Amino acid sequence: DEFGQLVIANTTHNTELLRGSCGGGGGVLGIVTQFKLKTHSCAPFDTAVIFRYRWNIENAGEVIKKWFDYNHDAGNVWARLEINKGQGLVAYGMCWGSPSTSECQGRLEQADFFNVQPRFTDLLETTSDVREVQGFLGPDGNWARNKAPNPVASLTGRRYDEAGLGNGRLYQSTMLKVDGAAGAPTAEMWQSYANRCEVAFDTGAAWSVCQWNPFVNKVKQEQDNYFPHRDANTITELITAPISDGARASARAEAHDFLNPWNTGVYSNYPEPPNELPGPYPELYWGKFLPQLTALKDEYNPCDFFEKPQTIPSSPGACQ
Q1: 296-310: per-residue pLDDT in tens?
Q2: In this structure, are residues 9 and 18 in contact, taking their beta carbons and an 8 Å threshold?
């Protein structure tokens, strides 16, 4: 910790520190020098079908609205929605454990969003190794447009190539719960949002991405840690190429105006300027577990020896 003490945290010793380190406090409470990690066999994921389907932008509102009603085959299908600037709406992902492309498409045909027409097939292929799936989703797969030529090399070669790309980008991750008191967003609302995504919110960015990521099934299960966003059922993201500070602030504010009625928090991939957030960042980032994480911060890192932008705040007077 900040004081140079070696602290053991497990299910019987310093359990609060374990909950914080496995939840929202990573990188702030100290340096982890050793840990035990339970692994799982990748065999259930080695047989999969990857897919990429596309709709015209004028159908986006209906597709997005119906996608929210899809349970992703109880976790056996993962389908992300995405709008790239000027390229319409796509759904890409994989059917886990699927023996054939026809079986995978049969699963998807049970979902209302998938049956919105016209729909175009950009990619539908089998895989035999979970690394092929990961390669498909990464840069060597052209971000889910094709199979990576060498998925093993793709994964081992990525390393920290992406680490410095956040500078100058707009990168906003908003957690949504669409069945809250505000009622579900309408297809018309999603169509308006999609239309703005299609033109990168008029920022002039060379490229932009709006994403809808499923946050359902296994990932929703309660775990004994301080991750604050399990009430959400979707992670939306707005990402652009580097743009001016003014354009970034304007686009972020407009996106928040669309999403605020269903916003349950912000997932902090990158620090977000406080004046561009719809509320105080500690509450948005750490939600109901902010008091527990602040108490841990006071105990193990009160003076920000382990520093990062928009860190968990210490209590007044905690740093002596």
Answers
A1: 999 999 999 998 888
A2: yes
